[in-house]
Design goal:
Radius of gyration: 24 Å
Number of helices: 9
Distance between the termini: 60 Å
Family: Belongs to the peptidase U62 family.
Strand order of the largest sheet: 3-2-1-4-5-6
CATH topology of the largest domain: PmbA/TldD fold
Largest sheet: 6 strands, antiparallel
Structural class: alpha+beta
Number of strands: 17
GO molecular function: metallopeptidase activity
Protein name: Peptidase C69
InterPro entries: Metalloprtase-TldD/E_C, Metalloprtase-TldD/E_cen_dom, Metalloprtase-TldD/E_N, PmbA, TldD/PmbA_N, TldD/PmbA_sf
GO cellular component, one term: cytosol
Helix content: 10-25%
Length: about 450
């Protein structure tokens, strides 16, 4: 971290010496260990070490970018030279420039995200083998394995700009995953489970990962068709967060100033049920996306994104904010931790309350158009009758329009999937078109 900070200061000095009116630099140093095993044998062991330096300079309203992976003085000087040369040939843009100086973060705290794991290759292999063995032994119908993986990594980054701001961050990430295959011939089904956390102490055990992967895989055997129609659709937590993702894409500054969003000019309007709220919490201890500042050094704060169903604000960095005549929301680089309000308990309760409909546990394809709001994605999961899971289903398509889907949300569960920075439980949409058997 000290080396990156010193290099960042040198880049800013070099930019100023070449006449840049403003400059910024982002540096990162990432390291990781990844192993993959399959059917009791080691397939890959990989150590990674990645470093990056991204330099941006401004000559008035002209902007230039250049990057390198080398921290040697000669490489830094050449990178700054290239950025300056590019800036001199670009057209001026009145929205270019650093974020406003008075928005820079001053309280540069850490949020308990640094938990290095002294795990060597042998230890990582042992964890993956244990998870796979537990999964294969859990049920005789498990016929094959797609493999198990262990990963541990850490990252250090520094952002600095010519306002005098320099912020350093560090974080770790660890995971263990397993994918299994059940059945034989045309009746084979695949599913998986994984655990992920900032601290290895928060990971699920290999035995639990194996058991969950096996239970999910076996439950998918012998799917049956259903008739095409309009039904309630219940998204499991890990699928429900994709709905929030579509919302985030539609309210991002880039989509809005390009006028390529179905939520254009919707700030201050109700887009979700009146009990539905989303709060951004950048300062959660051990939060997956906690940070004191965004990618431009702007201080982050707790704030509502949706309150009582009303879209309170957009997601803006300084450039998109200027294009829209607004102010940065501290979201350069994306959102931080999100918490979605719940009005129900868990998935089991929501299945009972749904009566008859579709429980979605897997989504396929990219069929969500944030320009028009059209939504159509491949899906699989379980058919629910009388408040109970009746049988698995696959090769379905669920469709609708995102504005209507958002308004039709009837319940959000408290069964939050903690493996994501989007904290949301199961989501019940009152009615969607489900294309199955003709």
């Amino acid at each position: 971290m000290e080396r990156l900070s010193a290099a960042a200061r040198e880049v800013l000095r070099l930019a100023a010496a070449r006449g840049a009116s403003q400059a910024e630099v982002l540096m990162n140093d990432d390291r990781g260990l990844s192993v993959n095993v399959r059917m009791g044998e080691v397939e890959t062991v990989e150590r990674t070490s990645d470093r990056g330096v991204a330099v941006t300079v401004y000559f008035g309203q002209r902007k230039g970018n250049a990057s390198t992976a080398d921290l040697q003085p000669g490489s830094l000087e050449a990178t700054v030279e290239q950025a300056c040369a590019i800036a001199r040939y670009t057209e001026p843009d009145p929205c270019n420039g650093l974020a406003d100086a008075h928005r820079m973060a001053t309280d540069l705290r850490e949020f308990d995200g640094w938990h290095p794991w002294s795990l060597d290759a042998d230890g990582a292999i042992a964890l993956a083998l244990e998870a796979e063995a537990a999964g294969r032994a859990a049920d005789p119908r498990i016929a094959n394995s797609d493999g198990a993986s262990t990963y541990t990594g850490d990252s250090v980054s520094v952002y600095a700009n010519s306002h005098g701001f320099l912020g350093a961050e560090r974080g770790t990430n660890h995971s263990l995953s397993l994918s299994l295959i059940a059945g034989r011939g045309d009746g084979m089904q695949r599913d998986y489970w994984y655990t992920s956390a900032l601290s290895p102490d928060d990971l699920e055990s290999p035995a639990l990962v194996g058991r969950k992967a096996a239970e999910r895989t076996v439950a998918r055997l012998d799917p049956r068709p259903i008739r095409t129609g309009d039904y309630p659709v219940l998204f499991a937590p890990e699928m429900a967060r994709s709905l929030v993702g579509h919302l985030l894409n539609a309210v991002s500054g880039g989509a809005l100033y390009r006028r390529a969003s179905f939520l254009l000019d919707h700030a201050g309007k109700r887009i979700l049920p009146d009990w539905f709220s989303i709060v951004e919490r950048p300062h959660l201890m051990r939060g997956l996306r906690s940070s004191a500042f965004d990618h431009e050094g702007v201080a982050t704060v707790d704030s509502d994104l949706v309150r009582d169903g009303v879209l309170v604000r957009y997601l803006l960095g300084s450039y998109s904010a200027r294009k829209l005549g607004l102010e940065s929301t501290g979201n350069a680089g994306g959102v931080h931790n999100l918490e979605v309000s719940a009005n129900a308990r868990d998935l089991d309760e929501m299945v009972r309350g749904m009566g008859t409909g579709l429980l979605v546990t897997e989504l396929m394809g990219q069929g969500a158009n944030t320009v028009t709001g059209d939504y159509s994605r491949g899906a699989s999961g379980f058919w629910v009758e009388g408040g109970r899971i009746a049988h698995p289903v696959d090769e379905l398509t669920i469709a609708g329009r995102l504005p209507e889907i958002f308004q039709a949300i009837e319940a959000v569960g408290a069964d939050v999937d903690r493996r994501s920075h989007v904290g949301i439980g199961s989501v019940l949409v009152g009615r969607m078109t489900v294309a199955g058997e003709a």
